[in-house]
Design brief:
This protein is an alpha/beta fold. The protein is built from 10 helices and 12 strands. Strand 1, helix 1 (about 15-25) and strand 2 form a beta-alpha-beta unit.
Amino acid sequence: MASELKVLIIEDNPDDAVLLVRFLKKSGHVVMYRMIDNQTDFQSALKNESWDIILSDFNVPQFSPLWALNLIEERELDIPFIIVSGTVPADKAVELMKAGANDYVMKDDLFRLVPAIERELREVQIRRKKKQAEEESLAQKDRLRVLVEELQRAVDSREELIAICSHELRTPITSMKLQTQHFIRALSKDNAKAFIDNYLHKFIINTNRQLDRLATLVDDMIDYSQSGSGLVTLNRNDQVDLEAVIHKVISKNQDTIDRSGSQISIHIISSAPISGDTRRLEQSFSNIFLNALRYGKGKPIQVSLVVDEKQAMISVEDHGIGIAPDDVDRIFKRFERAVSASDFSGLGLGLFMARKIVEAHQGQIRVASSLGKGSSFQIVLPRNRSQEKSVSSTSSAA
């Protein structure tokens, strides 16, 4: 099958251009060509069309082959450029070859033209394949670099999780161990009954508190392992009573509230059920609320709920340490806090999971905060979650 060849001919003699085309056709090529005789048309031809080969006479009044070669180099085009002329001074031929001309053929020896063209076309194919291979190699290296970085982040995350878990698990275990040892020593003494009467209730309450803390840590680790894909699975499609969710979470954490010193006020502006996973929404609100307790500095915390026809919004406002503007996005990432991990306990997964859960419900969490003045978190949820659009959740019958 004959190969198609697009040829740009720089020539001021149409008969010479036709002769060149005839030689190419005799070699078996289907020739598509354009003849030009000035630099303006040459610029336009390079800009608007692609060419397989350029054949240029040396003696065209309004055209400089040297200028053309410089332009091709400037535009980084890989198009073979062959001088085809009646006369070319030796010094000019050397200058043109140094500037990038691939060959020169005299018009009285056109039998050299076709082999020269075919040689240069083969060279172009070799260069293009080499360039493609280099680009693919670079792309492969980039993909490998990204993979290595992702693996390193995964290793770093695992090591960070292990380090944080080791610290967080040690605290309640140490507390329970010390209390148990103290209890054993007291039981071995003569006043064991008095000790039991006075301290057993306190011991059980404190032990239960530490067990709750351990359970929370375990739940956080399970959530972290299940969220490795970045998605949160919703296993229910309840009619969620957010007012009941708020009261349940606050009641469940009453001991923590008492220890924090914060006064909690609840404002139910309007309430109506929404579609969602009750357990997951309790978890999300609990994480936001406990975050306010943790960083609220014992100052009042306001919780409000408003539900309209389209959406529901739970607001949690504290007057504690606040968040710097640069940290607002960071606190929703794994293991991140607005302050040093040494100052506050926890895995640093609470806000991360809170946002993931809300996003799985096709909602969002908004934050407004001033450093040193407190923070306001708003959980915004649609009344009816669109099952078709939910790519990060699945639901099943309760």
